[in-house]
Amino acid sequence: MQNQEGALPEIQALEAAAFRAAQSGQDDEATRLWGRILAIDPNHVRTLTVLGQRAFRQGDTQSARTAFQRIVDLDGSDAQQWIHLALTCRNLNDEQAEEKAIQRALSLEPTELVALILRANLLERQGKTHDAARAYGAVASVAPPIERLRPDLQPAVSQALAHSEKYGRDMGAFLDEFLDPHRKRYAGENLKRFGDSLDILVGRKKRYDSHSVMYHYPGLPAIEFFDRAEFPWLDAFEAATDRIRDEFLAILVADEGFVPYITYPDDVPQNQFAELNNSPRWSAFHLYKMGKLIEENAAKCRITMELLKAAPQPDQPGRTPAAMFSLLKPKTRIPPHTGVSNVRLVTHVPLIIPAGCGFRVGNETRPWIPGQAWVFDDTIEHEAWNDSDRLRVILLFDIWHPQLTPPEREMITALTAGLNAFTAGAGAAVSEA
Question: Terminus of the chain with fewer CB atoms < 10 Å: N or C?
Answer without folding.
Answer: N
